[in-house]
Amino acid sequence: MRSNIAAPRGVVSGEAFGQPAHRRSLVTSAWHGVELRHLAALNAVGAERSFRGAADRLGYVQSAVSQQISQFEGLVGTRLIERERGHAAVGLTEAGEVLRAHAERVLSQLSAARADLASLSDGEETTVRVGATQSVAARVLPGTLALLYERRPELRVEVLERRSDEEFFSALAEGELDLAFTELPIAAGPFSSCKLFEDPCVLVVPAGRNGAASARPVTLAEVAQRPLVGHRGWRFGELVEAQFRARGLELRYVTHADSDATAQALVASGRASAIMPCLAVAADDPRTEALALDPAIPARTLALCWHRERRNPEALEAFCDAALDACGERFAGRMASARGRRHAEARARLARSIADADAQPPAAARARA
User: Could you tell me if 320 and 343 lie in one domain?
Assistant: First the structure.
Protein backbone atom coordinates (compact mmCIF):
# COMPACT_ATOMS: atom_id res chain seq x y z
CA MET A 1 0.00 0.00 0.00
CA ARG A 2 1.30 3.42 -0.94
CA SER A 3 2.05 5.96 1.74
CA ASN A 4 0.20 9.26 1.79
CA ILE A 5 3.36 11.01 2.96
CA ALA A 6 4.72 13.33 0.29
CA ALA A 7 8.44 13.46 -0.44
CA PRO A 8 10.20 16.69 0.60
CA ARG A 9 10.42 19.43 -2.02
CA GLY A 10 13.32 18.87 -4.41
CA VAL A 11 13.44 15.10 -3.82
CA VAL A 12 12.40 12.88 -6.71
CA SER A 13 10.48 9.82 -5.52
CA GLY A 14 11.40 6.39 -6.86
CA GLU A 15 7.83 5.95 -8.05
CA ALA A 16 8.50 8.67 -10.64
CA PHE A 17 10.83 6.20 -12.35
CA GLY A 18 8.26 3.40 -12.31
CA GLN A 19 9.71 1.60 -9.27
CA PRO A 20 9.11 1.91 -5.52
CA ALA A 21 11.72 4.09 -3.81
CA HIS A 22 13.19 1.22 -1.82
CA ARG A 23 13.90 -0.78 -5.01
CA ARG A 24 15.87 1.91 -6.85
CA SER A 25 19.60 2.40 -6.34
CA LEU A 26 20.60 4.68 -3.48
CA VAL A 27 21.99 7.25 -5.92
CA THR A 28 18.80 7.65 -7.97
CA SER A 29 16.18 7.11 -5.25
CA ALA A 30 14.97 9.36 -2.47
CA TRP A 31 17.13 7.31 -0.07
CA HIS A 32 20.11 9.30 -1.32
CA GLY A 33 18.81 12.15 0.82
CA VAL A 34 18.91 10.19 4.09
CA GLU A 35 21.34 11.84 6.52
CA LEU A 36 22.85 10.88 9.85
CA ARG A 37 20.60 13.39 11.62
CA HIS A 38 17.57 11.41 10.41
CA LEU A 39 19.03 8.17 11.77
CA ALA A 40 19.92 9.84 15.07
CA ALA A 41 16.41 11.29 15.42
CA LEU A 42 14.73 7.92 14.78
CA ASN A 43 17.06 6.14 17.19
CA ALA A 44 16.43 8.74 19.90
CA VAL A 45 12.64 8.62 19.50
CA GLY A 46 12.75 4.83 19.63
CA ALA A 47 14.83 4.91 22.81
CA GLU A 48 12.90 7.64 24.61
CA ARG A 49 9.41 6.90 23.23
CA SER A 50 8.68 10.60 23.09
CA PHE A 51 9.68 13.56 20.95
CA ARG A 52 10.50 15.65 24.01
CA GLY A 53 12.78 12.95 25.43
CA ALA A 54 14.45 12.53 22.04
CA ALA A 55 15.02 16.29 21.82
CA ASP A 56 16.63 16.34 25.27
CA ARG A 57 18.80 13.36 24.35
CA LEU A 58 20.04 15.02 21.16
CA GLY A 59 20.21 18.59 22.44
CA TYR A 60 17.62 19.79 19.91
CA VAL A 61 14.31 21.59 20.23
CA GLN A 62 11.31 19.28 19.94
CA SER A 63 10.13 20.76 16.65
CA ALA A 64 13.50 19.92 15.05
CA VAL A 65 13.12 16.25 15.95
CA SER A 66 9.58 16.17 14.57
CA GLN A 67 10.78 17.79 11.35
CA GLN A 68 13.62 15.29 10.92
CA ILE A 69 11.28 12.34 11.45
CA SER A 70 8.82 13.75 8.90
CA GLN A 71 11.63 14.24 6.40
CA PHE A 72 12.87 10.70 7.02
CA GLU A 73 9.39 9.28 6.44
CA GLY A 74 9.12 11.20 3.21
CA LEU A 75 12.49 9.96 2.01
CA VAL A 76 11.81 6.27 2.67
CA GLY A 77 8.17 6.45 1.63
CA THR A 78 6.55 4.92 4.69
CA ARG A 79 5.42 5.88 8.16
CA LEU A 80 7.97 5.23 10.91
CA ILE A 81 6.24 6.65 13.99
CA GLU A 82 2.85 5.77 15.50
CA ARG A 83 1.26 9.03 16.60
CA GLU A 84 -1.83 8.82 18.79
CA ARG A 85 -3.75 11.93 19.68
CA GLY A 86 -3.85 12.68 23.39
CA HIS A 87 -0.89 10.43 24.19
CA ALA A 88 2.54 11.81 25.05
CA ALA A 89 4.26 8.48 24.39
CA VAL A 90 4.93 7.49 20.80
CA GLY A 91 5.93 4.15 19.31
CA LEU A 92 7.66 2.92 16.20
CA THR A 93 5.89 1.15 13.39
CA GLU A 94 7.23 -2.18 12.17
CA ALA A 95 9.15 -0.30 9.49
CA GLY A 96 10.42 2.11 12.14
CA GLU A 97 11.74 -0.73 14.30
CA VAL A 98 13.51 -2.27 11.30
CA LEU A 99 15.11 1.04 10.35
CA ARG A 100 16.05 1.82 13.94
CA ALA A 101 18.05 -1.43 14.15
CA HIS A 102 19.99 -0.35 11.07
CA ALA A 103 20.35 3.19 12.43
CA GLU A 104 21.89 1.88 15.66
CA ARG A 105 24.49 -0.07 13.70
CA VAL A 106 25.33 2.87 11.45
CA LEU A 107 25.66 5.28 14.38
CA SER A 108 27.72 2.76 16.33
CA GLN A 109 30.05 2.24 13.37
CA LEU A 110 30.47 5.99 13.02
CA SER A 111 31.32 6.30 16.72
CA ALA A 112 33.92 3.56 16.32
CA ALA A 113 35.43 5.35 13.33
CA ARG A 114 35.57 8.63 15.25
CA ALA A 115 37.27 6.92 18.20
CA ASP A 116 39.75 5.19 15.91
CA LEU A 117 40.76 8.47 14.28
CA ALA A 118 41.07 10.14 17.67
CA SER A 119 43.35 7.33 18.85
CA LEU A 120 45.78 8.06 15.99
CA SER A 121 46.80 11.25 17.78
CA ASP A 122 48.52 9.06 20.40
CA GLY A 123 51.25 8.22 17.87
CA GLU A 124 53.25 5.14 18.79
CA GLU A 125 52.02 5.15 22.39
CA THR A 126 48.76 3.23 22.77
CA THR A 127 46.20 4.15 25.40
CA VAL A 128 43.58 1.61 26.50
CA ARG A 129 40.55 3.15 28.19
CA VAL A 130 38.91 0.70 30.59
CA GLY A 131 35.63 0.92 32.47
CA ALA A 132 35.18 -0.79 35.83
CA THR A 133 32.89 -0.71 38.82
CA GLN A 134 34.25 0.14 42.25
CA SER A 135 34.81 -3.46 43.36
CA VAL A 136 36.49 -4.53 40.11
CA ALA A 137 38.70 -1.44 40.08
CA ALA A 138 39.84 -2.18 43.62
CA ARG A 139 40.28 -5.96 43.43
CA VAL A 140 40.86 -7.01 39.81
CA LEU A 141 42.57 -4.07 38.13
CA PRO A 142 45.73 -3.90 40.30
CA GLY A 143 46.83 -7.43 39.42
CA THR A 144 45.80 -6.98 35.80
CA LEU A 145 47.79 -3.78 35.38
CA ALA A 146 50.85 -5.25 37.09
CA LEU A 147 50.95 -8.09 34.55
CA LEU A 148 50.12 -5.82 31.62
CA TYR A 149 52.89 -3.30 32.34
CA GLU A 150 55.38 -6.13 32.83
CA ARG A 151 54.54 -7.53 29.38
CA ARG A 152 53.68 -4.36 27.46
CA PRO A 153 55.34 -1.38 29.18
CA GLU A 154 54.50 0.90 26.23
CA LEU A 155 50.76 0.67 26.92
CA ARG A 156 48.93 3.28 28.96
CA VAL A 157 45.65 2.56 30.74
CA GLU A 158 42.99 5.09 31.70
CA VAL A 159 40.32 3.85 34.12
CA LEU A 160 36.75 5.15 34.20
CA GLU A 161 34.68 4.11 37.22
CA ARG A 162 30.89 3.95 36.92
CA ARG A 163 28.06 2.35 38.90
CA SER A 164 26.21 0.36 36.22
CA ASP A 165 26.86 -1.80 33.18
CA GLU A 166 24.40 0.29 31.17
CA GLU A 167 26.79 3.24 31.41
CA PHE A 168 29.66 1.07 30.21
CA PHE A 169 27.79 -0.30 27.19
CA SER A 170 26.78 3.22 26.21
CA ALA A 171 30.40 4.41 26.52
CA LEU A 172 31.65 1.45 24.47
CA ALA A 173 29.10 2.12 21.74
CA GLU A 174 30.06 5.80 21.62
CA GLY A 175 33.78 5.05 21.45
CA GLU A 176 34.48 6.60 24.85
CA LEU A 177 35.84 3.29 26.20
CA ASP A 178 37.92 0.52 24.62
CA LEU A 179 37.12 -2.17 27.19
CA ALA A 180 34.81 -2.57 30.17
CA PHE A 181 34.41 -5.12 32.94
CA THR A 182 30.72 -6.11 32.85
CA GLU A 183 28.40 -8.91 33.87
CA LEU A 184 27.15 -11.52 31.42
CA PRO A 185 25.02 -11.60 29.41
CA ILE A 186 26.25 -8.53 27.54
CA ALA A 187 23.80 -6.04 26.09
CA ALA A 188 22.58 -6.31 22.51
CA GLY A 189 24.78 -4.31 20.18
CA PRO A 190 28.17 -4.33 18.45
CA PHE A 191 29.91 -6.01 21.39
CA SER A 192 32.15 -9.02 21.96
CA SER A 193 33.34 -10.38 25.29
CA CYS A 194 35.58 -12.86 27.06
CA LYS A 195 34.49 -14.55 30.28
CA LEU A 196 36.73 -14.01 33.30
CA PHE A 197 35.24 -15.82 36.32
CA GLU A 198 32.08 -16.56 38.27
CA ASP A 199 31.40 -14.56 41.40
CA PRO A 200 29.07 -16.32 43.89
CA CYS A 201 26.59 -14.47 46.08
CA VAL A 202 26.75 -14.34 49.87
CA LEU A 203 24.65 -12.79 52.61
CA VAL A 204 26.53 -9.98 54.37
CA VAL A 205 25.39 -9.56 57.98
CA PRO A 206 26.51 -7.53 61.03
CA ALA A 207 29.42 -9.28 62.76
CA GLY A 208 28.76 -11.09 66.04
CA ARG A 209 24.96 -11.13 65.68
CA ASN A 210 24.54 -14.73 64.51
CA GLY A 211 26.44 -16.74 67.13
CA ALA A 212 26.69 -20.42 66.26
CA ALA A 213 24.51 -19.82 63.19
CA SER A 214 27.50 -18.21 61.49
CA ALA A 215 29.00 -21.68 61.02
CA ARG A 216 26.17 -22.83 58.72
CA PRO A 217 24.74 -21.51 55.45
CA VAL A 218 21.62 -19.35 55.57
CA THR A 219 18.51 -20.72 53.88
CA LEU A 220 16.71 -18.59 51.32
CA ALA A 221 13.60 -18.64 53.50
CA GLU A 222 15.64 -17.11 56.34
CA VAL A 223 17.01 -14.45 53.99
CA ALA A 224 13.47 -13.48 52.96
CA GLN A 225 12.62 -12.80 56.61
CA ARG A 226 15.46 -10.33 57.09
CA PRO A 227 15.43 -6.60 56.32
CA LEU A 228 17.77 -6.04 53.40
CA VAL A 229 19.87 -3.34 51.77
CA GLY A 230 19.45 -3.27 47.98
CA HIS A 231 22.00 -2.12 45.39
CA ARG A 232 20.71 0.10 42.58
CA GLY A 233 23.64 -0.44 40.25
CA TRP A 234 23.71 -4.25 40.36
CA ARG A 235 22.25 -5.60 37.10
CA PHE A 236 22.35 -9.19 38.36
CA GLY A 237 20.07 -8.22 41.25
CA GLU A 238 16.95 -8.84 39.15
CA LEU A 239 18.03 -12.43 38.53
CA VAL A 240 18.66 -12.91 42.25
CA GLU A 241 15.15 -11.70 43.05
CA ALA A 242 13.76 -14.07 40.42
CA GLN A 243 15.43 -17.00 42.22
CA PHE A 244 13.53 -16.11 45.38
CA ARG A 245 10.22 -15.53 43.60
CA ALA A 246 10.52 -18.96 41.96
CA ARG A 247 10.37 -20.37 45.49
CA GLY A 248 7.42 -18.21 46.51
CA LEU A 249 9.62 -15.80 48.48
CA GLU A 250 9.79 -12.00 48.31
CA LEU A 251 12.79 -10.00 49.46
CA ARG A 252 12.13 -7.19 51.93
CA TYR A 253 14.24 -4.12 51.17
CA VAL A 254 14.35 -1.34 53.75
CA THR A 255 16.80 0.89 51.86
CA HIS A 256 19.00 0.99 48.76
CA ALA A 257 22.60 2.06 48.15
CA ASP A 258 24.48 3.23 45.08
CA SER A 259 27.84 1.63 45.89
CA ASP A 260 29.24 -1.58 47.36
CA ALA A 261 30.98 0.28 50.19
CA THR A 262 27.78 2.08 51.18
CA ALA A 263 25.77 -1.15 51.16
CA GLN A 264 28.30 -2.85 53.42
CA ALA A 265 28.47 0.17 55.74
CA LEU A 266 24.68 0.11 56.11
CA VAL A 267 24.88 -3.57 57.04
CA ALA A 268 27.57 -2.73 59.60
CA SER A 269 25.13 -0.35 61.30
CA GLY A 270 23.31 -3.45 62.50
CA ARG A 271 19.85 -2.85 61.07
CA ALA A 272 19.91 -4.91 57.85
CA SER A 273 21.68 -7.52 55.77
CA ALA A 274 22.61 -7.53 52.08
CA ILE A 275 22.94 -10.08 49.30
CA MET A 276 26.21 -9.23 47.56
CA PRO A 277 28.65 -10.87 45.16
CA CYS A 278 31.85 -12.00 46.90
CA LEU A 279 34.00 -9.60 44.92
CA ALA A 280 32.01 -6.63 46.19
CA VAL A 281 32.54 -7.50 49.87
CA ALA A 282 35.47 -5.94 51.74
CA ALA A 283 36.67 -9.03 53.63
CA ASP A 284 38.83 -6.95 55.99
CA ASP A 285 35.86 -5.06 57.46
CA PRO A 286 35.55 -6.40 61.05
CA ARG A 287 32.04 -4.98 61.39
CA THR A 288 30.50 -7.49 58.96
CA GLU A 289 30.74 -11.14 58.00
CA ALA A 290 29.70 -13.08 54.90
CA LEU A 291 27.50 -16.19 55.12
CA ALA A 292 26.96 -18.80 52.42
CA LEU A 293 23.47 -19.32 50.99
CA ASP A 294 21.64 -22.67 50.98
CA PRO A 295 20.86 -23.52 48.30
CA ALA A 296 23.44 -21.43 46.47
CA ILE A 297 21.89 -19.15 43.88
CA PRO A 298 23.51 -18.81 40.44
CA ALA A 299 26.68 -16.75 40.55
CA ARG A 300 27.12 -13.64 38.46
CA THR A 301 29.64 -14.00 35.65
CA LEU A 302 32.17 -11.22 35.08
CA ALA A 303 33.63 -10.59 31.64
CA LEU A 304 35.59 -8.09 29.60
CA CYS A 305 33.55 -6.45 26.84
CA TRP A 306 34.63 -4.38 23.82
CA HIS A 307 33.27 -2.82 20.61
CA ARG A 308 34.01 -5.43 17.96
CA GLU A 309 34.41 -2.84 15.18
CA ARG A 310 37.24 -0.93 16.85
CA ARG A 311 40.80 -1.06 15.54
CA ASN A 312 43.90 -2.01 17.56
CA PRO A 313 42.71 -5.46 18.69
CA GLU A 314 46.31 -6.37 19.64
CA ALA A 315 46.18 -3.97 22.60
CA LEU A 316 42.83 -5.42 23.65
CA GLU A 317 44.26 -8.92 23.43
CA ALA A 318 47.17 -7.94 25.68
CA PHE A 319 44.81 -6.49 28.28
CA CYS A 320 42.47 -9.51 28.13
CA ASP A 321 45.41 -11.89 28.53
CA ALA A 322 46.60 -9.97 31.59
CA ALA A 323 43.09 -9.91 33.09
CA LEU A 324 42.58 -13.65 32.53
CA ASP A 325 45.94 -14.46 34.12
CA ALA A 326 45.41 -12.05 37.03
CA CYS A 327 41.97 -13.48 37.75
CA GLY A 328 43.37 -16.99 37.48
CA GLU A 329 45.91 -16.19 40.19
CA ARG A 330 43.47 -14.38 42.47
CA PHE A 331 40.52 -16.75 42.11
CA ALA A 332 42.41 -19.98 41.39
CA GLY A 333 40.19 -22.15 43.56
CA ARG A 334 37.04 -20.69 42.04
CA MET A 335 37.89 -20.95 38.37
CA ALA A 336 40.89 -23.24 37.83
CA SER A 337 38.98 -26.10 36.19
CA ALA A 338 37.51 -23.95 33.41
CA ARG A 339 40.14 -21.25 33.09
CA GLY A 340 42.19 -22.91 30.35
CA ARG A 341 39.15 -23.45 28.15
CA ARG A 342 37.89 -19.88 28.65
CA HIS A 343 41.34 -18.46 27.96
CA ALA A 344 41.50 -20.38 24.67
CA GLU A 345 37.99 -19.23 23.72
CA ALA A 346 38.84 -15.60 24.50
CA ARG A 347 42.04 -15.72 22.47
CA ALA A 348 40.13 -17.30 19.56
CA ARG A 349 37.56 -14.48 19.59
CA LEU A 350 40.28 -11.85 19.67
CA ALA A 351 42.14 -13.62 16.87
CA ARG A 352 38.99 -13.42 14.77
CA SER A 353 38.78 -9.70 15.53
CA ILE A 354 42.35 -9.23 14.33
CA ALA A 355 41.64 -11.24 11.18
CA ASP A 356 38.53 -9.14 10.48
CA ALA A 357 40.56 -5.95 10.91
CA ASP A 358 43.26 -7.23 8.54
CA ALA A 359 40.64 -8.15 5.92
CA GLN A 360 39.59 -4.56 5.26
CA PRO A 361 39.05 -3.43 1.64
CA PRO A 362 42.25 -2.16 -0.03
CA ALA A 363 41.10 1.48 0.02
CA ALA A 364 40.40 1.34 3.74
CA ALA A 365 43.71 -0.38 4.34
CA ARG A 366 45.56 2.30 2.36
CA ALA A 367 43.76 5.04 4.28
CA ARG A 368 44.73 3.45 7.58
CA ALA A 369 48.34 3.09 6.45
Answer: yes
- CA dist 180 and 176 (Å) reads 11
Last residue in a domain, options 65, 83, 108? 108
| CATH value at residue 179 | 3.40.190.10
Q: Nearest to residue 154, comparing CAs of 368, 319, 355?
A: 319
Q: What domain range includes position 251? A: 201-294
Top mean pLDDT of 29-38, 281-290, 303-312 is at 281-290
End-to-end CA distance of the chain: 49
Q: Is the pLDDT of residue 336 over 60?
A: no
208: three-class secondary structure by DSSP: coil
Q: How confident is the model at residue 219 (pLDDT cuts 50, 70, 90)?
A: very high
Nearest Cα neighbor of 304 from 197, 199, 196 is 196
Q: Of 119-128, 145-154, 184-193, give the range with the top mean pLDDT.
A: 145-154
